[in-house]
Specification:
- The longest helix has about 35 residues.
- The chain contains six helices and two strands, in the order αβααβααα.
- The protein has two domains: about 70 residues; about 40 residues.
- With about 150 residues, it is mainly α.
- About 5% of the residues have low confidence.
- The chain has a two-stranded parallel sheet with strand order 1-2.
- The protein is rod-shaped.
- It is about 60% helix and about 5% strand.
């Protein structure tokens, strides 16, 4: 797993990685081996300007192991992640997101006065066209009755 992550980071600049299932890796390979792999990956992440997200149930480990993990990682509260997902523009100012193309530029705020005028003009034009169409239909109906 560590080699795959290292290879991915070597091939991509400023990669965003999501490592899900750390509890499983720990159960299958042992905590110490998983932690050693995590140290290696974290060294690459930090030295190469990557971002690594690890959703994990911290209750899967004993207090000593939790302490070791928390010394290596910055905890990200779930509330903050929910806020970011609801308001992605809040993340836009982060240095990681300054690369062109990651976020679209914010659209200019609409000019409400101009929008009202445009709406009124369109509304009047549609009303006039609808009235003209009704008049033509009525005229056609009268002509058919005369024939």
């Amino acid at each position: 797993m560590g080699r795959e992550l290292e290879s991915f980071m070597a091939d991509n600049q400023r990669a965003v990685l999501l490592l899900d299932g750390l509890e499983f890796l720990s159960a299958v390979n042992g905590f110490e081996r998983m932690l050693a792999m995590l140290h290696s990956v974290l060294d690459t992440v930090q030295s190469s300007d990557h971002v690594l997200f690890i959703p994990a149930d911290m209750e899967a480990w004993n207090p000593r192991q939790r302490g070791q993990l928390l010394r290596e990682l910055d905890r990200l509260p779930a509330e903050r992640v929910q806020l970011w997902s609801a308001h992605p523009a809040d993340v836009e100012g982060h240095g990681f997101c300054q690369q062109e193309g990651i976020f679209r530029r914010r659209a200019e705020a609409p000019d409400l006065a101009a929008a009202r005028v445009e709406f009124q003009d369109l509304s009047e034009r549609l009303t006039t066209e609808a009235e003209a169409a009704l008049a033509r239909e009525a005229e056609s109906a009268e002509e058919e009755q005369l024939e």
